[in-house]
Amino acid sequence: MTGHRESYTMDSTLETVDSAELAACRIAAAAGFDEDQIMQISMAVREAAVNAVLHGNAYDPAKKVKLEFEHTSNDLVITIRDQGRGLDPSKIPDPLAAENLLKTSGRGIFLIRSFMDEVQIHPSQTGTEIKLVKHVPGASGGVKEVSQ
Amino acid sequence: MTMKTSTRQIDGVSILDCSGRITLGEGSVVLRDVVRDLLAKGQKKILLNLGDVSYIDSSGIGELVSAFTTVRNQGGELKLLNLTKKVHDLLQITKLYTVFDVREDEANAIKSFK
User: Fold this and answer.
1) Which spans in chain A are helix H?
2) Residue B31 lies in a domain
3) By the number of CB atoms within 10 A of the CB, which of A14, A71, A145, B25 ranks highest?
4) A96 to chain B: which residues are within 8 Å by CB?
5) Would you say residue B44 lies in a domain?
6) What's the ipTM?
């Protein structure tokens, strides 16, 4: 499915989180990732979707979550956008710090960064866009193909 | 698959057999409610059997931490039993593996409670 692109506009609900995870599983499997990598990708997408639905859009039915998958010859690129107030990545506490270990939240971005090869967070006043990249196994690392 | 639990009592220890997914929403709420019920009944030695837990997300991890601290703050102990590789790896990378008392053998786990 090289050059394949899928995009979804979804409500700010828990069902969206589950749907995003399932779509990530399906697309990662089709892209040739192994079982562990599929779990990592789908969990990263789930965590990003949770952030978008809960912390970004705060379950606001008027706000949507946009999810886009793009599979090139080298990468699986997943973009999740919300319409919230914008997430400042510099203000996310380190969940591995001793004083944060027993906190009950704050591990989502850490898990995303742990599981993906590249993570870019772009906050703005109209929402947050998070781009997740996982390199395709065995890809040459050459010039990226961009689907139109 | 949503999360399901059943509780057994052996030698004063409440063994909570969990299966399914501990994720944001129903799974996390189920775990929270069951642990709260056990504490309300004065059962403060809790062994969470996670052998059939297929998936856990950051909210589920947070719920495990919450259960651990809630039980400890009430003078009890909560230990984990039979981690799957996925859950084990998640606890490792979040540095929680050494926070929890993790056991692999049920009989020995039961004996380990004070």
Assistant:
1) 14-30, 35-50, 108-115
2) yes
3) A71
4) 94-95
5) yes
6) 0.91
Q: Is A6 left (phi over 0), alpha (psi -120 to 50) or beta?
A: beta
pLDDT per position as a tens digit, B34-77: 999 999 999 999 999 999 999 999 999 999 999 999 999 999 99
Which of B58, B69, B93 should we substitute to test contact with A (largest number of A Cβ atoms within 10 Å)? Answer: B58
| Residue pointed to by tokens 């866009």 | A129
Enter the pTM of the model: 0.91
Chain A nearest-CA residue for B59: A105
Q: CATH assignment of A4-135? A: 3.30.565.10
Map out the domains of chain A as residue ranges: 4-135
Which residues of A are less than 8 Å from B88 in CB distance?
A: none
Residue B36 placed within a domain: yes
CATH code, domain with B80: 3.30.750.24
Q: Is residue B62 included in any domain, yes or no?
A: yes
CA–CA separation, B76 and B39 (whole Å):
9
Q: How many CA atoms lie within 13 A of A119 on its CB side?
A: 18
How far apart are alpha carbons B56 and B30 in whole angstroms? 13
**A114 Cα to chain B: minimum distance (Å):** 8
Q: How far apart are CA B20 and CA B4, in angstroms?
A: 6
Q: Rounded to whole angstroms, how far apart are CA atoms B51 and B25?
A: 21
